[in-house]
Amino acid sequence: MRLIVPLRGVIQGRGGLFVGSLIPCCLFYFLQLYLKGRRPPPSDPTELPRTSSRSNLFSRGNSIGRVRVSSRALPVAKPSDSPYYIGLERVKTDPYDRITNTDGIIQLGLAESTLCFDLLQRWMSENLMDSIMQSDAGEFDISNIAMYKPFEGLLELRVAFADFMSRIMGGKVSFDPSNMVITAGGTPAIEVLAFCLADHGNAFLIPTPYYPGFERDIKFRTGVELIPVHCRSSDNFTVTVSALEQAFNQARKRGSKVSGILFSNPSNPVGNILSRETLHDILKFAQEKNIHVISDEIFADSVYGDKEFVSMAEVAYSEEFDKSRVHIIYALSKDLSIPGFRAGVIYSFHEDVVNAAKKLMRFTSVSVPVRRILISLLSDVRFIEEYMTAHRQRIRDKHIRFVEGLKQLGIPCAVSGGGLYCWVDMSSLLTSYSEKGELELFEKLLTVAKINATPGTACYCIEPGWFRCCFTALADEDIPVIMDRIRQLC
Amino acid sequence: MRLIVPLRGVIQGRGGLFVGSLIPCCLFYFLQLYLKGRRPPPSDPTELPRTSSRSNLFSRGNSIGRVRVSSRALPVAKPSDSPYYIGLERVKTDPYDRITNTDGIIQLGLAESTLCFDLLQRWMSENLMDSIMQSDAGEFDISNIAMYKPFEGLLELRVAFADFMSRIMGGKVSFDPSNMVITAGGTPAIEVLAFCLADHGNAFLIPTPYYPGFERDIKFRTGVELIPVHCRSSDNFTVTVSALEQAFNQARKRGSKVSGILFSNPSNPVGNILSRETLHDILKFAQEKNIHVISDEIFADSVYGDKEFVSMAEVAYSEEFDKSRVHIIYALSKDLSIPGFRAGVIYSFHEDVVNAAKKLMRFTSVSVPVRRILISLLSDVRFIEEYMTAHRQRIRDKHIRFVEGLKQLGIPCAVSGGGLYCWVDMSSLLTSYSEKGELELFEKLLTVAKINATPGTACYCIEPGWFRCCFTALADEDIPVIMDRIRQLC
């Protein structure tokens, strides 16, 4: 009990009585002054609970006694001030269409892909009905799709997901369906993981720039903080152990408890692929600090460069590591281009996480008809192989076209190997090299060029002038239109 | 600043220096002793973070440094000790089948209905494909189902839901689609409402007996407490304002902040329908206390008695009330018997709740293919009318058969008018009139009679011997089997 130093003075006869009284008194009165300073002002009378008098009870049309929502819901209800969401909303008001609205805003802000819609359309036309309606007995039985099924996903679906994930990762790693929980998309997968790995007020380290949606995914309900680990263009925005170490130590000094490291691989928004060595270093760092590692791998198959994608699962299977700290997020929204189906996965080596996540699936389970479609789709190996080949080839082609268009304007991109976007260095177009300058350019892109690209500020990038541009929902003929529009700002 | 009384003594020259020092000193030292007493014992060495030494880093097969999940996930990960979930799990190990497993456990624990599966099967066979594949242009377009759509539900679906809800409520109340948020089932609807209406540690009053799932729905993540308002068989378990008042006052004395009242109507598990007067009284009470009202109306169309169902929305529309405190939960799992589709609704008169809930739908949105099916299904007025008529008639018939069977065994049921279950008074079968006796009977029902019925304890009923028995997934020929099995225990 080190704090009671003054009393020791009394015991030791060193005039401690005075000090032993003075210190507590000072603390006591300062505490009162501090608390008084923090006390909220008296409530607005309009917010007082109603009395039971009839005059109040039946008063209408004024705000007396208007009931309030929870304090945690209020910030959620408010419109977002992130340029990421502002841009997405602006597109809705005037969306570009190459036939019906050629002057509308072109969407480069949303990571979705239409590159292989011809293949998906064909598969769905041929198989959708049978996949929902199939049953062991051959004939359609409504009870197969209408009744309650285990919230966490049928075993069949988990097996199909595990096979699919292994396939897109080149068969280098196999996934155990019993470590897997099926979620209604990647978004609830990350939220549920955050809930399971960190308590309210704890934090995850996260390399910047990062996907702007993580803010909502994690902060809205779980109360977990995100501590940025700043990465720089000089390293092509790749995280280093020394940067992690520094952020970890700073957090600890501030009294934050760091529960894990969260990152996406391929990185979103940069598009770079983490090397096996970097993954190894991250896991080694996490082991040293005894924290979790959350690897968001939803772009695992959307790779187009020469660099090999390595899953954190593969590194975790290395003999030396305690795998229980490794958790992987996957979803079909990007690689299979079906975000509307809301299908994702938590893959965790920690038994408690799997058990808790299974129970939490009551809040976010995939409907049974969609499960049936997914089982058929993911199990159709011939189709999946055809899709994967086309998907990678088409991303590569579109990436080349898009980057080449920018290059001709003198606008460079970060080196990337995956993702549905590129990370564009528009700093040459800034009027001032600052966040303010970047946001001015964002606004000019929206209003003058009529393009919605996500500014680095929304991704917590510390270098101004970078923009995420998603290119996989563009037709080839859109690209020259975009370049012409950007040229106006050069 | 009332607390600094001692210093006033100094100013007023009443020897306050001594008192003004003594009190803070006492508080200070007592606080230290208290904190020391509460401090956790030194951590187990097995839980210390690993050091960076290689010997620790690469150790495997022991528990040194095993990473821990969050403290809030641990209770979620553990198996439940509620007889409700225990019963459901036991059925899975040996489910009754009238052809292949006649000696299995008969499920009376799950509120699902197969009564109108013939109608649903016909509708799905004829319309499912078209409903998913339809588009404005006539031809199937994959982008209609595969791409991102607003998480909170398409306007078309909200309009269809609003019409459907109004229809099952006899057209006495109309629902505004802009007050509506579509959720992936009733379960996330109640969770999201709890998050929006109450902060962590706040409470809802809830009349007992209540649906056992509310515990998980509300407590797992939102941290909202449920304060039981005990109802008795003498009132047919109907809540009264005096019971609410008493529970509210007791909660306040204990320092709990009550944020709302949550109840289901028709009541789950009793099946009674709240009268217009009772709803009026509840809303008046809520207005007096300035708290929210959450009315779970997912059994609104599953009514079979003579008593009219009245929605809380209808009462809220009465001139005298501030509607913003009223929130309604609805879902298609019960009335339309499609829990596998995971489709529910939050209907709220509070703008902040609607806005916050829309944003939270990123975690629990309905997939687009299922939205398309639901739009077609709910808009098919001829089918819906046919379904409603058959559904009500068949529940009525099944209820009569089931209750009659029990009556012949001398086992009475509570008076009920809705729901997929009845509330059975098996107190005559208890060996002791206590919770222990009830749980013994639950176990005997499971192991001897091989029937899973949910005991009142799981529903927080204070009178022993009541069981919820769901009868709408039973075939007529199952009922005599059940009665024969129960007879063994009489």
From TrEMBL, chains A, B:
Pfam family, any one: Aminotran_1_2
Domain Aminotransferase class I/classII large, chain residue ranges per copy: 106-486
Gene3D superfamilies, per the entry: Aspartate Aminotransferase, domain 1, Type I PLP-dependent aspartate aminotransferase-like (Major domain)
Transmembrane spans: 16-35
Gene Ontology molecular function terms on file: transaminase activity
InterPro entries named in the record: Aminotransferase_I/II_large, Ethylene_sulfur-biosynth, PyrdxlP-dep_Trfase, PyrdxlP-dep_Trfase_major, PyrdxlP-dep_Trfase_small
This protein's UniProt keywords: Aminotransferase, Membrane, Pyridoxal phosphate, Transferase, Transmembrane, Transmembrane helix
Stored SUPFAM superfamilies: PLP-dependent transferases (SSF53383)
Compositionally skewed regions (Polar residues) per UniProt: 49-59
UniProt KW Transmembrane helix keyword: yes
The protein's name in its UniProt record: Probable aminotransferase ACS12
Encoding gene (name): LOC104761168
